TrEMBL record:
Pfam families: GerE, Response_reg. It comes from the Bacteria. Keywords: DNA-binding, Phosphoprotein, Transcription, Transcription regulation. Residues 6-123 form the Response regulatory domain. The modification 4-aspartylphosphate is found at residue 57. Transmembrane segments: none annotated. Residues 152-217 form the HTH luxR-type domain. This is Response regulator transcription factor. Gene3D superfamilies: 3.40.50.2300. It comes from Streptomyces stephensoniae.
Length: 224
C-alpha cells in the first residue's frame, strides 16, 4: 500500500489547526503528523518529522509564513511542499509566498473535500492548484513587477523551443492533457518536457514554473 501523505499544519489559531487536523485525519491517505504555532515552530517540525506537505498560515507571530516557506523550500534536496492558507485569494502576501516557494494556496473556508484535494495535488506536484485562480493571482501581481527580471530572462535560453512552448502553456494554467491536445503530443511526452523544464530552471513544481514564466517576461499579462 502507498504510505499516507504526511502533513504539518502551521497556524497560530488553535481552532484552525485542530479543525484541519480532524478533517484531514478522516481521509484514508492523509495523516497529520504535527501542528505548529508559528513559522519557527513549523521549520523545527519539518526538520523533526519530514512531512510531505506543510499547510502554512501567512500571518503568524515570531516568524511569518512567507519567510518560513522560503527557509523550508530553499534547502538543498528539500522535497517538502508548502500549501499557503489565506482568507482571500487576491492577496499580495499569497503571491509573495508563491515566489518564496509555496506550491499553492487554499482559502481557510474551504470545504473538507477541497482541503483534501489541495493536499493531494500539492503532494503530487503534477498540477497547479485551482489553475484559473492561481493564474489570476500571478497575473495580477506580476503586473506590478515592472520590467522582466534579467537573470530569469537569460535562463529561458537554456530551454528548447518545444520546452519554451510548454512552459508558456503551463503559465496559462493548462494541465498535461490539455497541453498534449494543444500541441498534438502524447501526454507522457508532455510530462517529460515538464520534468526537463523544472530541472533546467531549478524549479520545484508547475506553480513555480508559472511564476517564472511571468517574471522572466516569457509570458506577459494582457494589456502590457
Amino acid at each position: 500500500m502507498t504510505p499516507p501523505i504526511r502533513a504539518v499544519i502551521a497556524d497560530d489559531q488553535m481552532m484552525v489547526r485542530q479543525g484541519f487536523t480532524v478533517l484531514l485525519n478522516a481521509e484514508p491517505d492523509i495523516e497529520v503528523v504535527g501542528q505548529a504555532v508559528n513559522g519557527l515552530d513549523a521549520i523545527t517540525q519539518v526538520d523533526e518529522l519530514v512531512p510531505d506537505v506543510v499547510l502554512m498560515d501567512i500571518r503568524m507571530p515570531e516568524l511569518g509564513g512567507i519567510e518560513a516557506t522560503r527557509r523550508i523550500t530553499a534547502r538543498e534536496g528539500s522535497t517538502v511542499k508548502v500549501l499557503v492558507l489565506t482568507t482571500f485569494d487576491l492577496d499580495e502576501y499569497v503571491y509573495e509566498a508563491l515566489r518564496a516557494g509555496a506550491s499553492g494556496f487554499l482559502l481557510k473556508d474551504a470545504s473538507a473535500d477541497e482541503l483534501a484535494h489541495a493536499v493531494r495535488v500539492v503532494a503530487a506536484g503534477d498540477a497547479l492548484l485551482s489553475p484559473n485562480i492561481t493564474k489570476r493571482l500571478i497575473v495580477e501581481f506580476s503586473r506590478t513587477a515592472g520590467a522582466p527580471r534579467a537573470p530569469l530572462k537569460e535562463r529561458i535560453g537554456d530551454l528548447t523551443e518545444r520546452e519554451t512552448e510548454v512552459l508558456s502553456l503551463i503559465a496559462g494554467g493548462m494541465s498535461n492533457a490539455e497541453i498534449a491536445g494543444q500541441l498534438i503530443l502524447a501526454e507522457q511526452t508532455v510530462k517529460t518536457h515538464v520534468g526537463r523544464i523544472l530541472v533546467k530552471l531549478g524549479l520545484r513544481d508547475r506553480t513555480q514554473a508559472a511564476v517564472f514564466a511571468y517574471e522572466s517576461g516569457l509570458v506577459r499579462p494582457a494589456g502590457l
